[in-house]
Please model this.
Amino acid sequence: MPNQVDSRNPAPRARTTALPARALILAGLLAGSLVLSPATGPAHAARTAAPVTVTVWDIQTGVQQKEAIAQATAFNKAHPGINVQYTFFQNDPYKTKLSIAIGAHKGPDIFMGWGGGILKSYIDAGAVADLTSAVNADPAWKNRYTPSVLGPVTFGGHIYGIPYNATTPEVIFYNKAIFKQYNLKVPTTWPQLEQIIKVLQSHNVIPFSLDGKSEWPEMMILQYLADRVGGSAALNDIALRKSGASFNTPAWISAFTQAQALVKANAFENGFASFNYDTNDSAQLFYSGRSAMMFMGVWQIGNAQSNAPKFLPKMGFFAVPSVPGGKGNVNDIVGVPANYYSVASTSKNQAAAIEFLKNQLNPGYSSWILSQGQVPPVQNLNTSTIADPLVKAQVAMLAKASDYQLALDQLLPPQLAQKFLDLTGSLFALSITPQQFATQMQATTAAYFAAHH
Amino acid sequence: MAQRMQVAPGTARGRGMPRLGLVLLFTAPALVLYTIYVLYPVGVSMWYSLLDWNGLAAGKFVGLSNWRRLFQDQSVLSSLRNTLIILAASFAVEMPVGLLLAVLVQRLRRLGTILSSIYILPLLMSSVAVGITWSFLYNPQYGPLYYIYNNFGQQAPGLLGSPTLAIWAVTAVVLWQFIPLYMLLFNAGLVAIPQELYEAASIDGAGAWTRFRSITLPLLRRTFITASVLVLTGSLVYFDLIFVMTGGGPGNASYTLAMYIYRSAFQDQEVGYGSTIAVLLFVISFIVSGLIVRFSRLLQGD
Model:
């Protein structure tokens, strides 16, 4: 089921800025529709005008970045009137940089994002162009995508983003060679996983490598545990502000407790709290065989292709096991349904930007994604010719997914997301108890929802 | 009679007025820049501290509620504590060691010049490069600590991930990076001391330590004051290595005030609350600067 943050009651402060922002969006749409309506209009007009520059901010690295640039170059050739220019950033610095740029109305024409709470905060500030009419005007474009992938960028029935890359569920990667060496089988229940951890420790293999400093890898574990214990409603209901939904509930406290149990059992590498995902710290442990498993999104496959191609044959994954007595469906997945390109409402080149968006996830690029071991969120995927076992496994997992929940730090509003991440760091450092986490998180959440309707 | 009625030269009416005008003219550019980039933002921050604002949409006036929240916020206390740790450690280590190195470098003459260009390197490196490199050095699985501890069959401590030790681990790197600055400062101060004083003192039979205590230290008073100002103001707003090496973590264990401001304003999207902490930091810095000025007047005596 697609996730939609409830936008029936926009924040009062949004209303005070809405009028000029709405006028701008309306003007942009009018201009856009005027340009897009005649079929030969853009190409003809473009040949006589100077090329329009469309700036794009993105965070892709390695081979994905190279391919993105190649796609843009091909697009620029096919559209002489448009010049798409990419700028790439690192993940965490990008989040801050974008927020500042948007606040100062100096952002790019197109920016990437994850949808969810952060995008909503930009939408409420009137900084994002409404793409609904452009999308609805082109059914071939709209029907390219799987039904649920537009969920995280749809608010109040309006679409604010277009997916452009692979859909990436979060899984547990494991080293197939190590598992074979110690006769370990892929676990389907949490006690089985705990047993595997013990066996690995007895052979001096680090069970899980984890990037504690980045905090969101730890958050992934908590989110999955909460789902396995309390079902997808445990988080979804809070995001939708359903009455009675709370972090201070047995499901969440159980999730926090199980996570701390992992820490206390030394399931993670010594000193995990100083490992940084952005510098590939724990990935190195995994690729070098010093650790046997890694909780991560399937984008890690792309990372392995760039950084450790020789390791790829040993890389496998399995779904997060079920927790005995838990309400969650073991086919629920947590992750990032896609990354999305949104158009800034302050962009002077919205029509050109939308043209570029139409080029996203075209069949050529979708095939490329498959060749990279990932799955594009498109319909009518020809899976018969796929030989890569990792891709086959992902397609199978996505096909039977009972729920696809967006990562918590993107789903919730930024303030709550940061509080959760902070508390996560403290929880894994064993400086707070599960109950303290639940109480403090719920207090912040309740206060935030009370202050921002 | 007429002579006695004449206004004495050099009084305000005489030379003062044009002089004041000249002063204003020459300081105007600096004053203008100062107003735009210091006075105005400080004033605006005070206004923002009264708002609930996410930096994107319009803000909402909430009076003093941010301030009430500030005084109940545990993170502010721990940020203050960490800031004071950096301040105290910097004061206690950077200046004495800087002075020692400066004296050493002076004494060794040519070798000293070579040494000083090596000692200066940490200061010249980018904070981000320093932070990332030291993070690797501190890494308990890859760094030297791992190999040392592994030799004895022990697990290396994960310093940057420890709630209690992270701030100390980062402070150590801060000290490493900034000691050369004080070496430079004191070097300049030492060069200004006339050699005849030392010669006269050794003729009078003063030993090395007495010469140091009675000649070097007193004549470095001005340098000490300058150095103190730099240490205190630099430590209060310190941000770089905290951001790169721990990000304030784990949790909020290694926040400094500047880091917490950054977190609130830019990551939590709470520019209003971030401004409140910033105003607090401004007030603290103002008080500290005032004390330094007072203290330096006292110290200079003359």
